Amino acid sequence: MHQLSDYVLAVRTTGSPPAIEGVKSVDLVPGEDDDVIAATMAGLRASGLTAADFRSRVIFLAPESPDCLIPYAALCGFAGRRVDAYAGGTVLEFSRLDPKGEAFPDAGRPPGHLMWGQVGGPDAEGVPTVQVGSGSQQLVAPEAATVIRYAARLRMVPPESARDALATFVLVAALRRRSDDRFPYLSTGTEPVPIVKDDPAQGVDLEKLRREAGKYRQELRAGRRAADIVAPLPVSPHNQRIAEAKAVDVRTVLTRLGSSSDDENLWHCPRPRRHSNGDENPSMKVYGDNRTRCHRCDAEKVGPIRLVVDVLGVTPDEAASFILDSDRVVDMRTA
Length: 335
Fold this sequence. Notes:
This protein is of the alpha/beta class. Helices cover about 30% and strands about 10% of the residues.
């Protein structure tokens, strides 16, 4: 279990607790716009956060209100993944959760098209309403999983505590997952009966906020690519060797680290000591950009050099030598 002191960056918003000494903090304060999504995006832009910030351990310090879900949704969209949170005196390690909601069985697809559903709160007029357990007992009945998973649009009435609201939100988003988590509307449960699919009167569209934050991240990346072009510097032999090591097929590197594959893309993690089951099931996926990621160990995809550095505890130069020196089989873990 991580402690607050394990994080490099803490993101705060209005009403958040202070960051602890030694941890850098950034404030995401909403703007003045009456539109909640526009105001939150203005706060994200003014915060100065960059994609590079999320290469380190980042935690969201949640205010004690279910409205904490609004800046949290923006952070997840900007980071492109779940972000750990601190609420109710507890570190919530959402980034380490299994990203798949398929673990919860449902009762099958509804017989007709389900336009709207609601999770939490009192039964809503004209909207199928289901409940999930809160706190440590996050139980989901199959009938509830069907509504959460298959409703085209979902309202969520969160629990009152920030801790339970965040935990329920992450669970609901995972159940609705397709290629990414799909966020619900943040609702009070008192909105009028929805008439159309995209009804702005149903609360705060957290999925729209997630996508807007993701677009902003892409804007920052495009801005960096459009920077002034300067003449390339000569590549030193040292950097050339690092580049060659990065280009080696990550599958070859996984094999040299003692990993094995059940198929073309899923591999056993070469860090079984970090897995409660010793990595009995493959947990690493290989991507088309020659990077890989274990959803239990890695916050983001890693290339061959970073993988070797993490597994063997060596420097990048030593990792490059391990990758390129195929004629000399050296176990650098005992060297």
